[in-house]
Recover the amino acids of this structure.
């Protein structure tokens, strides 16, 4: 089995497990530098986490073929609007799919936050993403603080609480 095919199979199995569990899992991490992120935006410009330094980052791995991911996206947009003027960057990185699939989705669901492409899946692999969606909360100094596996509503409840705690800083 090819590496790409085994990654896709792993993502599909992870998705099935996360749907079956029925709820997102929140894993708080001891502060540690976030893995490297090297992706391109929809205009083809290279992007890294350094582009967001000084802001807390909600980094979401998703795919346009993933129903829980698509369900989650509108709440991320509402969170963006709710957090306007606060030091939060929302970045969604499309995992191992063609740019055309991403732009087709965005034509139906316009989003105001950054969308990056991980066309070859290298970031997905480096960040050890095994289920879609998976989100990472990174503080303003680039430290990974929390991992959320599964879809959540980001603008209410536990999702909003996690973002507010990230913005409040370490306790």
């Amino acid at each position: 089995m090819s590496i790409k095919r085994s990654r896709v199979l792993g993502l599909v199995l992870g998705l099935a497990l996360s749907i079956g569990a029925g709820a997102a899992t929140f894993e708080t991490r001891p502060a540690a530098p976030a893995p490297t992120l090297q992706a391109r935006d929809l205009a083809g410009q290279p992007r890294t986490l350094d582009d967001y330094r000084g802001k807390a980052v909600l980094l979401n791995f998703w795919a346009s073929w993933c129903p829980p991911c698509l369900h989650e996206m509108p709440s991320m947009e509402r969170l963006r609007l709710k957090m306007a003027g606060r030091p939060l960057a929302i970045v969604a990185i499309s995992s191992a799919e063609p740019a055309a699939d991403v732009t087709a989705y965005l034509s139906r669901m316009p989003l105001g936050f950054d969308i990056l492409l991980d066309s070859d899946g290298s970031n997905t692999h480096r960040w050890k993403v095994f289920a879609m969606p998976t989100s990472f909360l990174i503080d303003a100094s680039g430290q990974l603080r929390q991992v959320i596996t599964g879809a959540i509503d980001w603008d209410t409840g536990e999702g909003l609480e996690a973002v507010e705690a990230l913005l409040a800083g370490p306790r």
Notes: The chain has five helices and eight strands. Residues 54 and 141 are 6 Å apart (CA to CA). The longest helix spans residues 3-21.
